[in-house]
Design brief:
heterodimer, A: mainly beta, 7-stranded mixed beta sheet, 0% helix, B: mainly beta, globular
């Protein structure tokens, strides 16, 4: 079955880069997502990548995928205090009938120090 | 363009009671999924509705049931509430694409359920 693992905490200084890591188990035709959750709020989709890609960049966000090691990372450049939140990695497998449900990690709490 | 909406925002119930949570999907979406997020955990999949039928189900007991209406909105019902049902209940909507690509899910703000 699918399983997603993340480190629980990360603390960075404002202006530095943050790198949040995730490992997953499924291998073929997988979509991998990054969601952000602020206190008391729902999940905000940040970006996603398909398992046939190595990298995706969107403004301050860079996603890197190492398929061999099943390792996914999210890099946030020039981290701001507003980036403080919990970041969830999630995976879903593409089937002919559609996608399997999202399987989430436990989330990484990012704290940005001013 | 309205995003995913959920009601109510907060709810307090006692053990043994029943609760109904509601979700309206993002405009243009036809599929609704429900997730339970316990404190300090990632969301866990409950079930998914498409074309008014339950299509996929996670590892949740039959006390958890749902419904999807012709306008694609959805309800989650929980019977015989237990203390352990206290959680944030998240609704996510998507557009079913089958083999053509990702059914990217967009989440609502959630309903915080407290069972006393």
């Amino acid at each position: 079955g699918e399983d997603v693992e993340q480190s629980l905490f990360l603390s960075v200084r404002e202006g530095d880069s943050s790198v949040i890591n995730c490992t997953y188990t499924d291998s073929s035709s997988t979509y991998l997502y990054w969601y952000k959750q602020e206190p008391g709020a729902g999940l905000q989709l940040l970006t996603y990548i398909f398992s046939n890609m190595d990298m995706k960049q969107d403004q301050r966000l860079t996603v890197l995928l190492n398929k061999k090691d099943k390792h996914l990372s999210l890099r946030i450049a020039d981290t701001q205090t507003g980036d403080s939140a919990i970041y969830f990695c999630a995976e879903s497998t593409l089937l002919n009938s559609g996608n399997t449900p999202l399987v989430f990690g436990k989330g990484t709490r990012l704290s940005v120090i001013a | 363009d309205a995003g995913v909406t959920q009601s109510p925002t907060h709810l307090i119930k006692t053990r043994g009671q029943q609760v109904t949570l509601r979700c309206s999907p993002k405009s243009g979406h036809d599929t609704v999924s429900w997730y339970q997020q316990a404190l300090g955990q990632g969301p866990q999949f409950i079930f998914q509705y498409y074309e008014e039928e339950e299509r996929q189900r996670g590892n949740f007991p039959d006390r958890f049931s749902g419904h999807q209406f012709p306008n694609y909105s959805s309800e989650l019902n929980v019977n015989a509430l237990l203390l352990g049902d206290s959680a944030l209940y998240l609704c996510a909507s998507s557009l079913r694409r089958g083999w053509r690509g990702t059914d990217t899910q967009y989440f609502g703000p959630g309903t915080r359920l407290t069972v006393l």
